[in-house]
Specification:
alpha/beta; 6 helices
Length: 422
């Protein structure tokens, strides 16, 4: 296949500030040396076949406004909603009443200091990541979010990321949590297009000293479409990053999450639930970089595959020589509900320090027929018994979500998906 910069949607925005425009131009030059991933790329071994021919795609622009009903109940006074449609910010930021300490801007309205933060967050490793480079070279505008120093933002920020037209959308989000601040961001991915749709998104999170970011993600309505997302979190001294994700199957679903623990005392907690059915596919790649000493990471992903679907989990913990006194754990538990479903799990530990405590584990299994029989002897039907056991497999992770209303909503979704009813 030809280089990625020949794709019809890989083109520079004409409205960004000059510094960001220069970054896009430089990124386009790197695309000329990159090709579409195939099975020879280890990170895309199981997913490359799902990408398809992207040369027929163009940008999804000016889609018809879609009504997205709030899928869970959060009081308006406790949450602020921002909508991005086909990669563009559809909410008028000038008309919003923001809580004290919260700053929201379009990339096109950033000052030089803010532009510098966005550019610095990109990182050299992004040059190796094809779809992250596509987003960087081609997004039209982005959403800049900042929690000011010493501000604990009680109001949650809900980002409705909507794709409502055939083609490609390229949403980009930048979250900057300053010293001693705290913010909760909920990212919802919706697709209402009746045509072939592809969303290539990227989010950067900067969490400064003694600050906390709670990130909740969910993809809703992408079952017949493609969603390729990447996120990168950079944590400073004593910062904390909590990530909760509900990953539902898509024609091609993928999320690459990288967490860099850059200064002592940083902590991250990553939790995810993945459910696929029919011919759906979802690929989770996580990488936790322990760069500084005295940092802690915990990761727990649970996956359920049914029908002829496939789930891929690749989790990596990388500990550099200077990252002594590291504590890291990773668990990936998987449940297969159909003889034609497939789950591929690859946990990795790469340790170059000698004073660490680190562990990982993975399991793949099916429902226990003896447990099903036991529940049936207590009056449950076969379907009820299977649903109870399947929900029990994931509910511990669901209930750890940092927002109770989201945890309740996810439990409802999973109850419906895993009903075992014809």
């Amino acid at each position: 296949m030809s280089s990625l910069n020949t794709l019809p949607f890989a083109r520079r925005s004409e409205t960004l500030p000059s510094s960001l425009s220069a970054l896009q131009s430089a990124t386009r030059d790197t695309l000329s040396a990159l090709n579409m991933p195939d099975r020879r790329h280890e990170d895309w071994k199981y997913s490359a076949k799902k990408i398809g021919d992207l040369s027929t795609f163009d940008k999804a622009l000016d889609g018809r406004a879609s009504d997205i009903s709030r899928p869970y109940n959060i009081d308006k006074k406790n949450a602020l909603s921002i909508r991005l449609e086909n990669g563009a910010i559809a909410t008028s930021l000038d008309n919003l009443t923001l809580p004290e300490g919260l700053i929201l801007k379009r990339f096109t309205h950033l000052n030089e200091e803010e532009i510098g933060r966005v550019i610095e967050a990109v990182g050299s490793e992004s040059k190796k990541r094809e779809f992250e480079q596509i987003n960087l070279s081609s997004f039209d505008d982005g959403l800049y979010i900042e929690a000011s120093r010493n501000s604990k933002i009680e109001q949650m920020l809900i980002l409705e990321i909507v794709h409502n037209k055939g083609g490609v959308s390229l949403p980009r989000i930048f979250v900057n949590i300053r010293d001693n601040a705290e913010l909760t961001v909920i990212e919802e991915f919706h697709c209402t297009s009746s045509d072939t749709a592809l969303c290539i998104s990227h989010s950067d999170y900067l969490v400064a000293q003694n600050s906390q970011l709670n990130s909740l993600r969910m993809n809703l309505g992408f079952a017949e479409h493609k969603l390729i997302a990447s996120s990168r979190a950079q944590l400073k001294r004593d910062a904390r990053f909590n990530s909760d994700a509900l990953c539902l199957g898509a024609q091609l679903g993928r999320h690459d999450l990288r967490v860099l623990l850059q200064e002592p005392g940083a902590e991250c907690d990553l939790n995810g639930i993945v459910v696929t059915q029919a011919n759906q596919h979802f690929d989770n790649h996580t990488c936790i970089e322990h760069i500084a000493p005295h940092c802690t990471s915990n990761e727990n992903y649970r996956c359920i595959a049914d029908g002829k679907s496939q789930i891929v989990f690749n989790g990596r913990i990388h500990i550099v020589p200077d990252a002594q006194k590291t504590l890291g754990t990773m668990n990936n538990n998987n449940l297969i509900l159909s003889p034609t479903a497939e789950i591929d799990s690859k946990p990795e530990l790469e340790i170059y320090a000698d004073d660490v405590k680190c562990a990982h584990g993975t399991t793949i299994g099916q429902l226990d027929e003896e447990e099903i029989y036991y529940l049936k002897t207590r009056g449950l039907t076969d379907e009820q018994a299977r649903q109870m056991l399947t929900l029990g497999f994931v509910l511990k992770v669901v209930r750890n979500a940092k927002v109770d209303e989201i945890a309740d909503f996810w439990e409802t979704i999973l109850s419906n998906l895993l009903s075992f009813q014809d």
